[in-house]
Design brief:
Number of strands: 14
Radius of gyration: 23 Å
Shape: elongated
Number of helices: 10
Structural class: alpha/beta
């Protein structure tokens, strides 16, 4: 394995609160590695440990070949960090923010303007270069934050919840940037609580819950853990009796409702289909569609963590007193 990032027994306490619990993993060069977990799982604390923003209570982080505790300056020259909350200056223009970031990262004076122009064109904001950042939309600011992290051409990019709170179009644009950056060879470490985002973007995923890594694999490998259960999406016509009794049918393990569609997880397929036919006939129901559903990453997440997928859909609330480093992310 050609490692870009390695966490070795990484642990972080805040007082008596254990935020990151003895985690170990490697990230290969050139891959998109997802750190998936609910809010409060320890994702942001982990990214702060890996990028040298805080020191671990124990364990170590090796990034770009350097120990982040012993040689942080050497490591930081080779990484870019995009925090969840923008670190741009609202009173400066988009252009001036990038030039300032270039100065901070030690980009040679003669290369700063060229690099800023390239990045503004890359993120689609060159025409807005003279606008104050405070006047840009949240999605534009997020793209500009990514550009600022790329100004010194790092080989590894850390993204902490890059699409959190964005509208659909802005989130799609950010995901497009991530794919293009990775296509150019950048190693991407991505924290997210969006299951579908992790599934679409990541080569491999680690699921973290309550500070501990509970699973690590490719998305398809994680999905294979639930292949013992078959799921059907079933729709019924407008006429007929109630469908409340669906969950009580023989061989049914679980039922969830997705709009007008019922997703039913079953054990014995043949036995369930017979029971379903009898149920529909007895209640005067018309089955308008029935489709087999392949296991999703959400199914795997639920099976592995025991958590409801709804916990992943709750947007982050503003950090409250006492939440530092743990329950606010």
């Amino acid at each position: 394995m050609d490692g870009a990032i390695e966490a070795i027994n990484l642990t972080k306490y805040y007082g008596k609160i254990l935020a990151v619990d003895n985690i170990s993993f490697e990230v290969e060069r050139g891959e998109v590695f997802g750190f998936l977990g609910p809010n409060g799982a320890g994702k942001t604390t982990a990214i702060r440990l890996l990028t040298g923003q805080m020191k671990p209570s124990s364990g170590s982080a090796i990034v770009a070949g350097f120990d982040m505790t012993r040689e942080p300056i050497k490591a930081k020259r080779l990484i870019g960090v995009v925090p969840e909350v923008s670190n741009l200056y609202d009173e400066l223009s988009a252009w001036d923010n990038l030039i300032f970031a270039a100065q901070l990262y030690g980009v040679p004076r003669g290369a700063r303007g060229m690099r800023a122009k390239e990045l503004l064109e890359f993120i689609g904001l060159y025409d807005r270069r003279e606008d104050r950042v405070g006047n840009l939309s949240k999605g534009m600011r997020r793209r500009l934050t990514i550009a600022a992290a790329l100004i010194h051409e790092p080989s590894i990019l850390f993204l902490d919840e890059p699409t959190s709170g964005l509208d659909v179009e802005s989130a799609r644009a950010i995901r497009g940037l991530i794919r293009e950056l990775n296509g150019r060879g950048t190693t991407v470490f991505l924290t997210t609580h969006y299951i579908e985002e992790a599934d679409h973007l990541c080569d491999r995923i680690a699921i973290i819950d309550r500070g501990r890594i509970v699973a690590k694999d490719k998305p398809e490998g994680l999905k294979s853990r639930v292949e013992g259960r078959t799921a059907f999406d079933i729709s019924f016509g407008p006429r007929g009796g109630p469908v409340d009794g669906l969950a009580a049918l023989d061989h049914v393990k679980e039922v969830s409702k997705l709009g007008e569609v019922f997703r039913v997880y079953v054990g014995d397929v043949t036995g369930f289909l017979q029971a379903l036919a009898d149920f529909a006939r007895g209640n005067g129901l018309e089955i308008t569609s029935i489709n087999t559903v392949k296991p999703s990453l959400e199914d795997a997440f639920v099976r592995i963590t025991g958590l409801s997928p709804e916990v992943m859909r709750v947007e982050k609330e503003p950090a409250r007193r006492g939440d530092v480093g743990y329950s606010s992310h």
